[in-house]
Each structure stands twice: as structure tokens, then as C-alpha cells.
Known about the structure:
- By secondary structure, the protein is of the alpha+beta class.
- The protein is 36% helix and 27% strand.
- The protein has two domains: 20-181, Ribosomal Protein S5, domain 2; 188-312, 2-Layer Sandwich (Alpha-Beta Plaits).
- It is built from eleven helices and twelve strands.
- The strands form two sheets. Strands 1, 2, 3, 4, 5, 6, 8 and 12 form an eight-stranded mixed β-sheet that branches.
- α2 (91-102) runs parallel beside α3 and α6 (201-212) crosses α9.
- It starts with 6 loop residues before the first helix and ends with a strand.
- It binds cytidine-5'-monophosphate (C5P).
- Cytidine-5'-monophosphate is lined by residues 44-46, 48, 158-160, 175-176, 201-202, 205.
- Cytidine-5'-monophosphate (C5P) is lined by residues 44-46, 48, 158-160, 175-176, 201-202, 205.
Amino acid sequence: MPSFVSRRQRRSCDQRKVERVSVTASAPAKINLVLSVGPLREDGYHELATMFHAIDRRDTVTVESGPSGSGVTLSVEGEGADGVPLDDTNLAARAAMILAQRTGRVADVRIHINKTIPVAGGLAGGSADAAATLVACDALWGTRMTRTRLTELAAELGSDVPFSVHGGTMIGRGRGEDLTPVLAHAELTWVIWPNSLGLSTPTVYAECDRLRGDRLIPSPSIDEAVVSALRADDPRLLGPLLSNDLQEAAISLRPELADVLAEGDGMGAIAGIVSGSGPTTVFLTENEAEAKIMSVKLGIFYPDSPAFVARGPAPGARLED
Ligand code: C5P
């Protein structure tokens, strides 16, 4: 099994271990091209079939050895930093602790997160921080985990964290942690419109259950046509196939999201959809030029939550020089 850190990186990390005690890694935001939500399981999760797609908006995490006995300390700057918990409920702190525990180390580490991914936005920002922390601490401590082992630890932290480690475009099953690569590559350009008021993922799943009532829910699935559209590398084929079973629940909790989707439609997006559990909405566009025009227009309508252009697929968690 290939190790997660390349030999060249590892040499430089080993050198850094001696010379300095700080390592930086980054991980991408994700959107779901398809999010098919099946029945509620006995463990409180829903059975999913989802197609994850990483985009080139990344959080950066720097880890630094702290004094003996200092434990894990956290600091956060950047987009929505005020909304990020600084205690051990933070996924990045939990990532450092789980890696330390499983490798017999003491987690005396300072973690600094630089956020560009909106918080509680349905873009897996917390999962990205956890994935980047796993990769950074692995290099800082020289624990040399394989990618497979890192992915297993990631799955213990949250359903989306394994994908944040891998990146690209992948199908997730189970609660989202059981990943298969999509054997198709399409470069996609998106307009991402965050919403300053986050939505809690469990609340959106609970609303989905409430709206479903007693209805019998089929097993989740992904239409093979989605993979064909990616193979054809044609956003016009993909647009009508984007789907999200949590969208109705997100709109039920935030009715204004329906207006945003209609607005994007009117501005010439190929398709618009709520990302994950929301409230971020994402719009598939024809190309970079169209995306830029649309993000400027959205900025005029909603100056308080500026939209941005993003491209996918993007690589998963990785060390930064
Ligand atoms: O795995 P993670 O901690 O990210 O999940 C957060 C919450 O989202 C879960 O506690 C659960 O309420 C909901 N969830 C779910 N089904 C999934 C994934 C998440 O119901 N497959």
C-alpha cells in the first residue's frame, strides 16, 4: 500500500522534525453532485449514496509541537472563525487526539486553522480541518500512516472526513465513509453562494425525516447517467442530473434558499442545488467567464454573503511547503 506522504516530502518532513517543529497541510471543501438519502439506520445515521466532488477552496492547518503537558491548543483565523469551537469538540483537535492515541504519542500540539471554507455551510469545512490535521500531525510526529490507515481514522471522526483526505470525485456509500473512486474526469466550474447563517447537519437530517413521515424510503442510489455525463465532460449533460435529497429539508428550514436557486437559474446557471445539508447553494456553469459574471451579479443581490467561483475536482488533504 503506498504511503500517504511522498518520499521526497517525507525526507523534508524528517529534516523539519529536526530543524523546526511546525508542519502545514491543507484540505478542500466538497460539494455533493448527488446526495441520495436512504432510510434512517439503527445507529442514528442514514444510509447514503452520494457523489462527492472536491473544489479548490481549501482550509490550511499548521501544527506545531507544544511544551510537554500542554495538550491540544487551538486557534482559528479567516472566514467565519468566530463560529468555530475552540474546545475538544473541534474536529481538528479530535483528529490530533485520535492520531496520538492510536500511535502511542502524547498530543502536545498547537493547531492553527486558517479558514476559507464557510463554517456550517454544507461544504465539509470541519471535515477538511480534520483531514488536514491528520496529515499534518502524521508528518510532524513521523508516524508514517498509510493512506488506508489515515482514512480509517478519518471515518471515526465524521462521515465526510475520509473524502476530505482523498479529494477528487468519489462515490460514498454507507454513511458516506465507504468510498469508491469515480472513473471519469470532468473539469467543472461552480459559483458557490454561502449563507452567513449556518445550518446544523443533524437538524437538516431530522427535518428530512419529519417531511418523509411514515413513507417507505427506498435504498439510496446514483444513476449511472451521472458517471456517463462526467465521462462526456459536458456540464450541460450533468446539470439536470444534480440532485440532493436534503434540499427540500434545507429549504423547509430556510425558505429563502428557494429564491436564491431561482435567482441563479435566472442568471443563466446550468443548474443550481443546495450543497449537502446546506445552506450553501452551488451553481454549475458553462465556463470560468460565465461563472465570474454570475458571481458578480449574485454579489449585487446579496452583498453580505459574497459568492465565489470554484473549480473541481481538487486534490485531497496534502502537505504544503
Ligand atoms: O458523521 P458526522 O458527524 O459528520 O454526522 C453528523 C450528523 O449528521 C450525524 O450525527 C447524523 O445526525 C447526520 N448524518 C446522518 N446520516 C449520515 C451522515 C450524517 O444522519 N449518513
